């Protein structure tokens, strides 16, 4: 576990702005609306020569019932339990509020070292708030501005003593982790029989995005796998706002699960925060390797689900359909048939998309999900040898020759796989622009069927050019 810093404070004091500045990316959603952050979010923070784990938390609220605010406060408490040092932020321009005083008293009763940060100190309007903050009993405040980056040297000075002490106490463990983290290479044999070195990515985490409409059980599913209430859940729709990445392990294989905000139709989105959340979810899809589209089993593949699926396929990601709340379905055979029919008519370009039925709440059927994901990931990474492809292409064109173009036959000279993830194939022809889309679909469907590449997007592109082996044949 790296040195860990938790950022806490009442709503709208700039915690997420500081988090984004420390991680060097706009990972957390920032808006003037109080209470945007709900789940605790983690990232790798850097300031000067210090590198550490930083946790952004929800705004502290004085709520101790079953409300959403109370559950957010519990998430913040978990972050504090994990942290080595706590950064308690106040808004120096607004001065010290009763809520600031209340939570300062609460933090003093905990074992964590607490550092007082006075935010929004880019002008003289913050002076009174800085003087008032001495009354919180947390020591001297460190003034800075998270938005403008002014005074970040003060934040460095606040963290450094505790960081240096922790590094000294954990020196042996840190050295061991550095050795394990070194880039590993492996020797492989290429198609020409030559030994080459490549980076071994088998130990890199498999990134899986959990997406879907609001309130279908995405966070509940992740909590089930983690074995803890790591993410906020509840009957309220749209609880999740940020895309939260969580490290996980299945049978010794590293996984990064990414929980995302529910994605509604754009015409129904009228709040800025929800617009930002949806954009964050789409970003998660772009950077994932496998995308799990979670459906409510009582509403199989609605229009918005199809939109999400199409975006996933267009991005070239591997897609798996997860039918949650399966325990509540009465006629299961009818629902599965309805889903299969909808996929056949609406997503014909990707056949064989895996479907997993489960209940995130009870855990029933969840054991089937990761085996399906791993098989799908293998299909997404499949590589077909060039020689095998060209023998196959010859058989396909003999069985069903390309159509004539302006009275002349189109000749498909040569085929190769350009890349994986998703499998992408290039065909060289004498007149590539004249080949109809129906014939390309014939080729793509043949590849999928004959080489067993089910459930992932397959891209077939045309290029004009000669067979690169033709000149070699002539020389012989």
From TrEMBL:
Associates with the 50S ribosomal subunit. Keywords: GTP-binding, Nucleotide-binding, Repeat, Ribosome biogenesis. One of its GO terms (molecular function) is GTP binding. GTPase that plays an essential role in the late steps of ribosome biogenesis. The gene is der. GTP 2 binds at residues 212-219, 259-263, 324-327. Residues 3-167, 206-381 form the EngA-type G domain. It comes from the Bacteria. PROSITE patterns: G_ENGA. The keyword Nucleotide-binding applies. This is GTPase Der. Belongs to the TRAFAC class TrmE-Era-EngA-EngB-Septin-like GTPase superfamily. EngA (Der) GTPase family. InterPro entries: G_ENGA, GTP-bd, GTPase_Der, KH_dom-like, KH_dom-like_a/b, P-loop_NTPase, Small_GTP-bd. HAMAP family: GTPase_Der (MF_00195).
